[in-house]
């Protein structure tokens, strides 16, 4: 029997993309960084909190997000990755394997500054 806290298949309604940061030699002894798409999946995305601050006379709003995805054994999600969600770039703070029968991974991320 499912409880209200368990995630159902219909809860995964948002598309999220995970990107790796790739370093490439630039030919001058240095490196350039580029983002390479690693994985795209359906997720349940919840806005946990938000903060407002002023920076250079501009209001800056930072949000923290909870992202639930199904575990895919072919892909390893790491904190070195970043997430693209509705045009926002999110930095991964923590990855928690809920270790449930449904194999759901919980990711806490915040918007990139």
Beta-strand residue fraction: over 45%
Gap from first CA to last CA: 42 Å
What general outline do the C-alpha atoms trace? flat
The sequence of SSEs as H and E is: EEEEEE
Give the number of helices: 0
Strand order of the largest sheet: 1-2-3-6-5-4
- The averaged pLDDT comes out at 84
Secondary structural class: mainly beta
Number of strands: 6
The parts where pLDDT drops under 50 for at least 5 residues are: none
Please give the share of residues in helix: under 10%
Major sheet, described briefly? Answer: 6 strands, antiparallel, barrel
Q: Tell me the Rg in angstroms.
A: 17 Å
Blueprint (SSEs and pairs):
Blueprint: E1 14-25, E2 31-55, E3 58-70, E4 82-85, E5 88-97, E6 104-111
Antiparallel strand pairs: 1-2, 1-4, 2-3, 3-6, 4-5, 5-6
Short description:
The protein is an all-beta fold. The chain has strands at 14-25, 31-55, 58-70, 82-85, 88-97, 104-111.
Please characterize this protein's 3D structure.
With 113 residues, this protein is mainly β. The protein has no helices and 6 strands. The protein has strands at residues 14-25, 31-55, 58-70, 82-85, 88-97, 104-111. Strands 1-2-3-6-5-4 form a 6-stranded antiparallel beta barrel. The chain is flat and about 50 Å long. The chain starts with 13 loop residues before the first strand and ends with a strand. The mean pLDDT is 84.
